[in-house]
Amino acid sequence: MSTDDQVPLGSRISHSIMGHDVRIIDRGMVNGRLIAAARGLLGWDQQELSKRAGVKRQTVADMENDARRPQLRVRNAVMDSLENAGVRFIEVQSSVGAIIPRGNTTSGNGPLDQAHESGVPPTTAK
After folding, report:
1. Which pLDDT tens digit goes with each residue over 6-37?
2. What domains does the chain contain, in order, with CATH numbers?
């Protein structure tokens, strides 16, 4: 998905997973576990995400542990970094997860690059 054809938040994606509708979720629903999952899909450590977002590594660690709610500016910088690298946060039934749609990664070195070939499902968290 390029920025020109991004699906609006809360809307349905044109396909389903195992017969279930898929929906892009609002940033407010993204918790620390999903941020950590998204970072892992990209093959980034906390330091890499903090560098790309322009925040301290401890801020990323605190966000991932849900230890504190960062300022909106900081949260948006982290989310922008993940989304600009190709991550999308989705809901399928009552589960939410982080995915990188096929061919939509800018990192090229994350586990999902190999997972697309092997059919491994995306990382999910409830």
Report:
1. 544 445 454 566 677 788 888 888 999 999 99
2. 3-125 (1.10.260.40)
What is the crossing angle of helices 57-64 and 32-42, to 10°? 120
Which tokens belong to 67?
């230890």
CB atoms within 10 A of CB 102: 13
CA distances 56 to 37, 51, 60, 63, Å, are: 19, 8, 7, 11
C-alpha atoms less than 13 angstroms from C-alpha of 107 in its C-beta half-sphere: 26
pTM confidence score: 0.69
